[in-house]
Amino acid sequence: MQDIRLTALTAWLSSLSPELGLITSSLRPASMDASSRRYFRVDGDARTLIVMDAPPATEDSRPFVRVAAMMKKARVNVPEVVRSDLSQGFLLLSDLGDATYLSVLNQQNASELFSDAIDALIRWQLATSINVLPAYDEVLLRRELLLFPDWYVARHLQRVLTPAQSEALEQVFARLVVSSLAQPTVFVHRDYMPRNLMLSSPNPGVLDFQDAVIGPVTYDIVSLLRDAFVSWEEARIREWARVYFDRAHVAALPLHADFDDFWRDFEWMGLQRHLKVLGIFARIRYRDGKPRYLEDAPRFIGYVSAVAQRYDDLAPLARLFDQLEMQ
Questions:
Q1: Which domains does the chain show, CATH number per domain?
Q2: Left, alpha or beta for 101 (phi > 0: left; psi -120 to 50: alpha)?
Q3: What is Dmax (Cα atoms) for the chain?
Q4: pLDDT tens sequence across 123-133
């Protein structure tokens, strides 16, 4: 079957070739993600470039361009937008390489790599200004949380919650939303995790930032340390969270004065994200036909269960996971 978008993309690159020295015959796949976006690599004059194909019917590339400029201004290493055709959904970007944090992280280098990621995150958060990004508000928080019962429980587990279970889940959701909205707000990348960080100079290169919002200060740091695809010992997570906490205080970011209060916000924010991602992974499998993401569901179930068991207010969620026999 003919790939109509690839044909159009190749024609667009050919039109840029005289100016940029692109070798369109070198176009090859670079990566795909959970959305309908896909990425290619193409050779140019003395460098390679990344081509993003983001179908306008499902993907709006304007936020990518806008947030890239904001992050660059904040001294965060992001791809340069070399050329764009937003009407077709094509972007030509500088190439940050193919070594993701996820592909290189190990017990020996994790602290150094996370140190760089924490510094970059703080620079991004320090750039915060109001009314320039969408708000991570109650509507968005609740819409994300509902992905868990709608897609993971109902579609994946094929379970119907009893009225009592639905009420218990709603109570937990309400507490998580209140906790999230009570936090100080900063710029939030919204998927700041090792899969979206590149080993580069300066380190890290940051990708997949088009969904950035202004929201809870703990969101990105918990995304980094309690990741979808790699797990760490709790003692190390707490140690790295403390590194962030101390540096953020020095930078005068708005945080609790007490680390234990910050840690509670960190854990509860992570719980909101983990429930959301369980729903997203199920949706990606059943709606989009991409089953491999759901293979990492046990990691998130472990995160949720551990946190829910540590706080009395979250006990109804721990009981629900037991009742649903989520392992």
A1: 4-94 (3.30.200.20), 101-323 (3.90.1200.10)
A2: alpha
A3: 66
A4: 999 999 988 99
